[in-house]
Design goal:
about 90 residues, mainly alpha, 434 Repressor (Amino-terminal Domain), 6 helices, about 60% helix, about 0% strand, globular
Amino acid sequence: MEGKAKPDAVGRRIKRIREARGMSQHALAKAAGITQAMLSQVESGARNGRTLRLEAVMRLAFALQVGLGELTGSVVDFEDERVAAALASVGA
């Protein structure tokens, strides 16, 4: 029996930021011009967020009022558990 898929870092970031903004999936999907089903799949892990087209990521970033780097991980995400663990290991 297969386990439930886990969202990748992109999906986790989208969900975290969306919830911090107090937005529903429906509201974000509408603002970004994507389907709620696609957003739900990315946030739940049913679809890999890294496979989203650049246009969709740009629309999501714009709707969430964040830079592309914050969604894609090209900036340091200090709330990421791995980053926190790495910082703790070096005493930061």
